Amino acid sequence: MSQQFDVVVIGAGPGGYVAAIRAAQLGFKTACIDEFKNKEGKQSLGGTCLNVGCIPSKALLESSENWERIEHKFEAHGISVTGAQFDVKKMLERKDGIVAKLTQGVAYLLKKNKVTALFGHGKLLAHKDGAWQIEVAGEATETVTATHVIIATGSVPRQLPGTPTDNKLILDNEGALAIPEVPKKLGVIGAGVIGLEMGSVWKRLGADVTILEAAPGFLLAADEAVAKEAQKIFTKDLGLRISTSVKIGEVKPGKNNVTVSYADSEGKEYSETFDKLIVAIGRVPNTWNLAADAVQLPLDERGFVVVDDACRTSLPNLWAIGDVVRGPMLAHKASEEGVAVAERLAGQHPHIDFNTVPWVIYTSPEMAWVGKTEQQLKKEGVDYRKGQFPFSPNGRALGLGETAGFVKMLADAKTDRILGVHIIGPYASELITEAVVAMEFNASSEDIARIVHAHPSLSEALHEAALGVDKRGLHS
């Protein structure tokens, strides 16, 4: 007889495992299915984010930034380092150790909360007699049943047409995190989060990095002022070569290198040969072999599972969350959707405001934002005021030696309600949370301006930006 559950979650990434834990906490008999295996061939929970995405990339970013500090920044502190060396193998081992600790932690959390972990590929077979039949194809194949199913299968890297990644010469995010030695010449197709983060890692370690972007501008999703500042820093200070409005032609792998043909916005053609090529042109929903044809899983024209505002599909007791549905492909968005669905199953009424989901790019300096950009407000005809304050006169930033960037706050001209906050600078990923909390409570710029901020602290830049909305900055 097959195992029976109240809730089965397909996928153990940040959305899936959190959904499973919350469902179990609410009293549901819960299982979580996942098929990811690490490079040793062992089952490893946590999905792309923990295994080959968010977490390992941050580990390598920190390692590369430490090397940059030794090479270029410690001298200003009176610290001289002679004969410094770095070992890529040890950097990768440290990264792998962090991943192992966190993925093992997920396994512990599932066990602690009495969630049954099922290893294999999960596939919806049918809905009969009020229950879903789900195939789990692992070392053996079994069928389990569940009253409710939550699809949390995430996303996979978008492939360059005609040029699949092999993670030897042509790399996706997984391959970019495991390059065994610093390439002399590294090509990156795509100037998004993955392209910028991985390009900056290997540039700091000594690679000559060229980033080719198809979009007509740089970081078009970010506030224009942030994108402009970031492009200046990445090209002039870090030394990345970034070209936009690029049309990629033939990508030809050789024995030990890859040749990329491309044209610029004026049609001028180029050809460059790289030791490695990272393809970071976005991600697509992972719905491969997710349901039998008879199930008729509702997908839109881009392959996303179709859901309503509550993450409910049109099929009975079938839900979907995270990268596999509409909305930003962000781990924290997936986690909160997972919690919300579990609570809806228990009759609760949670709410997620997508307008206050923060975005972060963990380059150096970091970029983070929440709410509307200035160009969006202009396009929508919203009457707004803004305040902006640089990190250059901030005492804490000066002490850190990280003074690039600024904080920008946008507020409604009539109500003063905060509409957006945009940060490029040190620890932007941490600073943005104050703005998220403020916007969740419909705070005004005046509210932030009247809050006492610790001195010296980086958060004072947010305080000054809020003061600047009313043109009463104290240090500008």
Question: What class, by secondary structure content?
Answer: alpha/beta
Q: Please give the CATH class of the largest domain.
A: Alpha Beta
What would the principal axes of the Cα set say about the shape? globular
- Parts with pLDDT < 50 across at least 5 consecutive residues: none
Query: Main sheet, how many strands, which sense, barrel?
Result: 7 strands, mixed
Number of domains: 3
Protein name: Dihydrolipoyl dehydrogenase
Domain FAD/NAD(P)-binding: 5-338
EC number: 1.8.1.4
InterPro entries: Class-I_Pyr_Nuc-Dis_Oxidored, FAD/NAD-bd_sf, FAD/NAD-binding_dom, FAD/NAD-linked_Rdtase_dimer_sf, Lipoamide_DH, Pyr_nuc-diS_OxRdtase, Pyr_nucl-diS_OxRdtase_dimer, Pyr_OxRdtase_I_AS
Structure description:
- Keywords: Cytoplasm, Disulfide bond, FAD, Flavoprotein, NAD, Oxidoreductase, Redox-active center.
- Its cofactor is FAD.
- With 476 residues, the protein is an alpha/beta fold.
- The chain has three domains: 4-157 and 284-352, FAD/NAD(P)-binding domain, CATH 3.50.50.60; 170-281, 3-Layer(bba) Sandwich (FAD/NAD(P)-binding domain); 356-469, Enolase-like, domain 1 (2-Layer Sandwich).
- The chain has 13 helices and 22 strands.
- The protein has helices at residues 16-25, 47-52, 54-73, 88-112, 173-176, 193-204, 224-237, 331-345, 374-380, 395-400, 428-440, 445-450, 460-469; strands at residues 4-10, 30-34, 116-119, 121-128, 131-137, 141-151, 155-157, 170-171, 185-189, 208-212, 241-243, 247-253, 258-263, 269-274, 276-279, 283-285, 318-320, 359-361, 366-371, 384-390, 406-412, 418-425.
- Strands 1, 2, 3, 4, 5, 6 and 17 form a seven-stranded mixed beta sheet that branches.
- Strand 1 (4-10), helix 1 and strand 2 (30-34) form a beta-alpha-beta unit.
- Helix 1 packs parallel to helix 8, helix 3 (54-73) runs antiparallel to helix 4 and helix 3 (54-73) runs parallel beside helix 6.
- The longest helix is centred in the first third of the chain and has 25 residues, at 88-112.
- The protein is globular, with a radius of gyration of 24 Å.
- The mean pLDDT is 97.
